[in-house]
Amino acid sequence: MLSTSRPHLSVFILTYNQKEVVGEMLEGILRQQGPYTLELVIGDDASSDGTLEILQDYQQRYPDKIKLLASNKNMGLIHNFMRTLAECDGKYIAICDGDDYWTDPFKIKKQLDILEEQEDVDLVFTAKNNLFPDGNLVADPRPDIAEVTDFSHLIRENYISSVSSVFRNRTREKQVPQWILELPYGDWPLYLWTLVNGGRIVYLKDITAVYRMGIGQSASYRSNEIAAIAVKQKILRFMLSDPHFSSKRKEIKQSLEATCLKRVNEYNRRKQRFRAFAEMLSIFVRNPSLKSLKHYLYSLNQSFKH
In what residue span(s) does the Glycosyltransferase 2-like domain sit (predicted)? Predict the structure, then answer.
């Protein structure tokens, strides 16, 4: 039975038909060392391949650590995301999807040490390795990312891999936006929601985890550039209409315009010039800008050269 005292950390885990890899994920979490208490909050979305049975076995072995949320029928990634998030009681939250895993036994200690010592830091993430379907393991140190960033940087693009992130749990203070239920994934908007009041992001260059490339629903969206851009536009528009983000409207608008222009570029790159024109027209109607017009004309010109 889980302890009644609040743990330092909730490890937020979503699983679905990952029998072959879910044990490796759990072992990476359970071998964490340090003074911090943790709970594993696992939302299984009606797995049918034996994943649930593995999870139940681990829950029986670690009843004081594992909270297992099972489903009778498949609810979909984002509904599973929201119901699992609601069960996270820790002061902080870490994310580890069922097909990813942690490799550094001091991962959590390193990140929680920073969050405990620096109250103005709301999120800490680390470098990772990428594991490709062919078995190739490639380091992804991201030297382009600054050691300290904030909302104004993250609103432009999501450079945080969920398997490496730990952030403050604000879900006990305010309601998570319900518009997240309209999205194919929830990690990026959840980070931004957590950071909206000005907290900093710290990047540790230590490699602490492995991310499996090209797996899952959110990966399928991100592999299609137009679909990925459309989802990002949707998220930014939700934020613009959400009073919780009112103090960040300028940054959100700037990111939305840049994202719309990126969509124009992608349409032109694909020779879909009418769609590019329609997207540009909608941008220009909202915010007439010579800079945007020049961007469009350059993109159009490039589409005839390649």
Answer: 10-124
pLDDT at 25: 98
Domains contained in the chain, number: 2
Domain that holds residue 181: 9-216
Percent over 70 (pLDDT), the chain:
95
Determine if residue 236 is left, alpha or beta; phi over 0 gives left, psi from -120 to 50 gives alpha, anything else beta. Answer: alpha
Considering the domain architecture, whether residues 175 and 199 belong to the same structural domain is answered as yes
pLDDT tens by residue, 230-286: 999 999 999 999 999 999 999 999 999 999 999 989 998 899 988 988 888 888 888
What six digits make up the tokens of 187? 């990690």
Token pair for 76 = 């979909």
What CATH number does residue 120 fall under? 3.90.550.10
Tell whether the model's pLDDT for residue 159 goes beyond 90: yes
Tell which of 216, 244, 262 closes a domain.
216
- In this prediction, residues 159-180 reach a mean pLDDT of 96
Query: Does pTM surpass 0.85?
Result: yes
